[in-house]
Amino acid sequence: MDFHSDNAAGVHPAVLAAVAEAAGPLPDAYDSDPWSSRLDSAFSTLFEAPVRVFPVPSGTAANALALAAMVPPWGGILAHVEAHIEVDEAGAVPFFTHGASHLLVEGEAGKLTVEALEARFARRRGDVHQVQPAALTLTNATECGTVYTPAEVAALAAFAKARGLRVHMDGARFANAVARLGCTPAELSWRAGVDILSFGCIKNGGMTSDAILCFTPELAKTLPVRRKRAGMMPSKGRFAAAQLLALIEGGTWLQNAARANALADRLAAAAGPRLLWPVEANSLFLRLTPAEKAALRKEGFGFYDWELAGPDAARLVVRWDQDTAAVDALASRLAALS
Amino acid sequence: MDFHSDNAAGVHPAVLAAVAEAAGPLPDAYDSDPWSSRLDSAFSTLFEAPVRVFPVPSGTAANALALAAMVPPWGGILAHVEAHIEVDEAGAVPFFTHGASHLLVEGEAGKLTVEALEARFARRRGDVHQVQPAALTLTNATECGTVYTPAEVAALAAFAKARGLRVHMDGARFANAVARLGCTPAELSWRAGVDILSFGCIKNGGMTSDAILCFTPELAKTLPVRRKRAGMMPSKGRFAAAQLLALIEGGTWLQNAARANALADRLAAAAGPRLLWPVEANSLFLRLTPAEKAALRKEGFGFYDWELAGPDAARLVVRWDQDTAAVDALASRLAALS
Amino acid sequence: MDFHSDNAAGVHPAVLAAVAEAAGPLPDAYDSDPWSSRLDSAFSTLFEAPVRVFPVPSGTAANALALAAMVPPWGGILAHVEAHIEVDEAGAVPFFTHGASHLLVEGEAGKLTVEALEARFARRRGDVHQVQPAALTLTNATECGTVYTPAEVAALAAFAKARGLRVHMDGARFANAVARLGCTPAELSWRAGVDILSFGCIKNGGMTSDAILCFTPELAKTLPVRRKRAGMMPSKGRFAAAQLLALIEGGTWLQNAARANALADRLAAAAGPRLLWPVEANSLFLRLTPAEKAALRKEGFGFYDWELAGPDAARLVVRWDQDTAAVDALASRLAALS
Amino acid sequence: MDFHSDNAAGVHPAVLAAVAEAAGPLPDAYDSDPWSSRLDSAFSTLFEAPVRVFPVPSGTAANALALAAMVPPWGGILAHVEAHIEVDEAGAVPFFTHGASHLLVEGEAGKLTVEALEARFARRRGDVHQVQPAALTLTNATECGTVYTPAEVAALAAFAKARGLRVHMDGARFANAVARLGCTPAELSWRAGVDILSFGCIKNGGMTSDAILCFTPELAKTLPVRRKRAGMMPSKGRFAAAQLLALIEGGTWLQNAARANALADRLAAAAGPRLLWPVEANSLFLRLTPAEKAALRKEGFGFYDWELAGPDAARLVVRWDQDTAAVDALASRLAALS
């Protein structure tokens, strides 16, 4: 009955089994184990291109380390005003980048457009007095539960690259975007111009590890030392690797996301005109009066107020392992409210 | 047969069981779970005093975050020349502290003395031009496999506190030190003047989490936001907490360390005059000629060269789950060499 | 004929004389000289309250060091979207603060309002995941050539202080604001709630030094070491101090600003409806077509395009030593255009 | 009668005249002035090679910015244990580099040797766990008043370059070294392998500016934005440039240094066996008992205790404008003591 966050979801049995399998002793530590050694090739297969993989303990770590590999301390990062890095990561990006600036841009339903970026550039100068943009970051699926298509990503990335910028994608819910769009992981990432992808697993059946996927070899050069120096090179690296492999090698990551998306669709259909934005992943944003919120909560449904969208907004997130009955119960209640 | 590092040891069954037990879904994320909620009280019981506990994904993270909570960006940290923070953490401390300096002091067998600290202070000035010491860090058990007694820690901490410094202990192998000394955890930490302890679990049967234990309440104030900003506040915090609880609540942490210490003693007895320093924890440092090293490795024994102690030095570390037969085999070989 | 920037103005004769007078040898270096020793008392007299004074080599340095003394690395700084720290200081604030974030707020004519700040707060949460505001910065006179009155500053500062925030004022043109308002320096700074003021001199007849004025003693504690560590504690500190004293001790600072303001008024009267905002200090912002800009430049008038206000905007700044005839010539031309 | 520091010396008349000449208004600000524009060519002439020049307000700023242009945040800087950056700059290097580490090496009379560097390297590993050296810094003249010859610099630089390191020279007293050695500035800098030189002027007749001289073009790329972001790009850049030009264009810098060196020689001859190290620039380090120090101070001679060299050490520095009679008086007293 809880729709607060997919962060509180359970761990997929395949992940748990993989962790158990990795629990025995090994000759050597850090990344010198069979699981860590297989990471690059497994993700390279999945993404149909050479990928360097760096497991990290959170999505915040993935985003901040990835951007640090792209942006100098004095650089700027073009981001949506509601980007997770701006709203919910406590300044991790300026910490890991040694002071890079977020250059925020508005956009409907959590999405940036080329026009908005152009307008932003028109008001800037290229001299030493101004923070110069060095990267563009896109969240996909977005913080508003919408998705960028491969074509949209490609257009934004092309704009960025024409100006010498790198392109990062916050893919905390990349699986949900791929599942929704029916595209390949490659189409939504490096083929569209993404240099580094923060690949979310924890929300999607994982346990303690997300990953940085680097498609552009020169950007991978500093990541090993940045990761070590950030205290994120675990001495028992096999556990992070085993989780990631368990999710991707059998396709579980995509099945989990597809299920959550489908259940979110049921809620969306029920919520109808209350929806703030189209439901394209596993999150819904609704208008609910205080009385309606209270009533739902009294019945046991958990969800967050969403201050960013005003005092009567609410966010509901469907998990990969959400109980179907709970979804149906909530759908009935939402339909009744409408 | 491998004595490279306790970092490559296995995971204790109790830890694995605890992780499995925590694998189901929860209402809320981050630290809002029954395991995380119990951490402070469980460690407070073990240490006989109020403790704030912050799980982190590595010992490097524990040391660097702990020191960042104690030392301003312009401060200095008195440390042994062979301290792990100086030798093996890739500059994590200046990263997390925003530039604090290590003020290194020499000392026999990995240990600092009050006399050496006094000599260091005599050569310094207190003005704005010099980096002023703000903390003292001690590693216990030390990087040389020796231990500080509670009285030694107390004397060093008293020296530090008289000069306004905070005291940190790198306890990656704190369990081994406590097991060796037969003292209480309290006696070797806050009762001796330690403000924050990096409490190692991963080497000692854990999986993916060590912990910062903060005994001095005012130093805990900034740790939540520092940890979040460093990408180390996991959305599924229960897994770190469950591991830590599994190790300490039944005394497993101490049993594991005691076993490793005892096996290290067998090797020490066999190595005799080859030992560089007394064996007081689970590590041995030996003189071995290149031919001797090669012979041992050919027989399957794994261990590191130890450049810091010269070209013919070697380090052997005994793990909590080291095979007894392997220890006995190595002991025989060492005895035969002597 | 040049109206690009007061940064290119000349040095006031009193400043030059003071520098020459300080040129001889002294017994000791850094701040151990008669000029530096007199700084605190001279500014305390001018501001009718105890002030700690820290000379710095630029306004950027003043703003960034001042904010670093107020805001932790993970803190936020509420600022106008066109604040100099955001638009023209190349990320100096995140550099000196070790990563603090600008939390930008819109406002007409370069000015923040309590209502806008309230709206900003309503959309935020107070938890560890979000950057928490730690300071409010106001520029006075603003980047748009307008001024905050003492009452306006007091209202904004009261809002900030009620939420535990510190208050900084970027006073690169503080002299122009005081001269315009006819208030005392105290009324526009600490009496209105300002904790630290960046006091501009270089634009106003100075040579190489601006100053940080700290009214809140506890915020001054870290400034000496921060300034030293930033390479801004000059070994011949007497030259910065002598300049600052020369400007303030005889009232020159206020006379210079008043003259520039008065000349700007002449231009404002001539520009009439072309003005984007009221002219309340020594800067004017005009609508000018490309043809008009080109014509004026051809006649020798220098000024900047002002991209922030759109493609047909221009900024003209009047200096303390601007030639009267040049002002009158430009006023005639502007009047003719209208 | 004061021998505390050349930092407290007077300003050379040519510098003062140059500053006065630059005092008038200009069309544009920052580095857009005739003096700043001439800097690169003037220093290129002096050094017989293309040089990029960046004026900065202190030697600390010069060293820290120069090293930041060479060393990543996770890099190490090989330096003498008594290097000014370690002993007297309050952690400026870790601030500007975002956390680079000093890797200290001992050496007689303030000088590093290739042998000592080799020993240091022998004890290190090249893996991701250790801070990897990225630069070597030499102070010339050294903090002990000795000098490296061009051949010595070349040998050390060759060692560094063979390992991929950059080479920095702290030339706070570079003029004194050149004057002593009778070599060209080129021979003691880029021809010997120096990539960036901190060129001291303030101690040697300047007023408020030292300079970074960059001989290696690729290292100059980030210096403009680093300097701006550090608040060290002055809006009236002409004053720094005018000082530097005034000192170098007529050879004053070398005459000033030669005079100070010659007077230091007189003192050295008188001090005889009390000297700790050879006097090769303008500083002397002596053994003096507390009673002897007190007696000299009572007679009006000013100088510092030198804790680094023990409780009975003293440092005396001769300035470019030191009074000859004072030197002779002190020489007599020292001779009488011996």
Name its key features.
15% strand, homotetramer, Aspartate Aminotransferase, domain 2, 10 strands, Aspartate Aminotransferase, domain 1, 338 residues, seven-stranded mixed sheet, alpha/beta
Provide a short characterization of the protein structure.
The first copy, chain A, is 41% helix and 15% strand.
Roughly what is the average pLDDT of chain A, rounded to an integer?
A: 97
Percent range of helical residues of chain A? 40-55%
Biggest sheet statistics of chain A: 7 strands, mixed
Could you spell the SSE succession of chain A in H and E letters? HHEHEHHEHEHEHEEHHHHEHEEH
Which helices and strands appear, and what pairs or packs with what?
4 copies of one chain form a homotetramer.
Chain A: H1 13-21, H2 34-47, E1 52-56, H3 59-68, E2 75-80, H4 84-87, H5 92-97, E3 101-105, H6 114-122, E4 132-139, H7 150-162, E5 166-171, H8 174-181, E6 196-199, E7 210-214, H9 217-220, H10 223-229, H11 238-249, H12 252-271, E8 283-287, H13 290-298, E9 304-305, E10 313-317, H14 324-337
Parallel strand pairs in A: 2-3, 2-4, 4-5, 5-6
Antiparallel strand pairs in A: 1-7, 6-7, 8-10, 9-10
Helix pairs in contact in A: 1-11, 2-11, 8-12, 12-14
